[in-house]
Amino acid sequence: MDESIIITFANQKGGVGKTTLCVTFANYLVKKGLPVIVIDCDSQESLAQRRESDLKRYPSGDTAIPYEVLPFSLNKEEALFGFIGNIRKTRCVAIFDSPGNLKQQGLVTLFANSDYIICPYHYDRTTIPSTATFIAFLQKLKNVMAGKMNARLILVPNRHDARVGRRSELMLWEETRETFSRYGLVTPKINSRADMERFCTLSDLDGQLEVTQAAFDTIFKEIFGHIEADTENG
Ligand SMILES: Nc1ncnc2c1ncn2[C@@H]1O[C@H](COP(=O)(O)OP(=O)(O)O)[C@@H](O)[C@H]1O
Ligand SMILES: [Mg+2]
């Protein structure tokens, strides 16, 4: 890795799993042996405080801390450029958790500087239109940035409940997947499971790897597939 890879979890819709998947994906990458840093840009969520409490709750003794969790306020837009510049130089996978509010200062700068935007969503009547609006927003932003914004969009159907859904709804969901596929990579679904209702910034909790594996493996291959191939060749 010559430069850090910047990944931002985003969707204007709240409650889709941005924060949960940000942390579980960080844990997943650490297991893969990659250097990771998590940047918490959502002041309402405070992953930085979560790390403190995780350390108290799960005392790990001598075990090394898997990755740093840094709080960063997007309000300091001027500082954001310098911050991202420094992150780039650290040669790690930098994962940003972002707030849902699109009016948040600095968010556009963050999107424009991301290599990947991972957008979780789920199938319900308000989340699908809201996610579609968000995808359209990113498209417009890309047009305005005229080649300066290169983020690849990855869409993650999360909180899937296989027990619900009439035939008509199931068809609608498949159509949504097809439509969204025109704008980015849509991963396999992540099921709605009690195992995902909690997370820990030190390691996966029981069952989380299994629930997220298919989706995370797809993301991993998308981001690092060519890097692995490069290493094998050289
Ligand atoms: N796959 C899942 N299964 C069950 N609950 C989930 C799943 N993903 C997220 N959740 C729950 O959904 C809620 C919203 O998740 P969160 O990560 O806080 O979303 P966001 O950051 O987008 O607002 C939380 O209560 C979380 O525990
Ligand atoms: Mg959140």
Q: Describe it for me?
A:
It comes from Muribaculum gordoncarteri. Residues 7-164 form the CobQ/CobB/MinD/ParA nucleotide binding domain. The protein is an alpha/beta fold and 234 residues long. It has a single domain (5-233), classed as Rossmann fold. Helices cover 44% and strands 14% of the residues. The protein is built from seven helices and seven strands; from the N terminus they run βαβαβαβαβαβαβα. It has helices spanning 18-31, 47-57, 77-89, 107-112, 127-145, 167-181, 208-233, and strands spanning 5-9, 36-40, 68-71, 93-97, 116-121, 152-157, 185-186. The chain has a seven-stranded parallel sheet, with helices on both faces. β6 (152-157), α6 and β7 form a beta-alpha-beta unit. α1 (18-31) crosses α7. The two termini are 14 Å apart. The structure holds adenosine-5'-diphosphate (ADP) and magnesium ion. Adenosine-5'-diphosphate binds at residues 14-20, 158-159, 190, 192-193, 196-197.
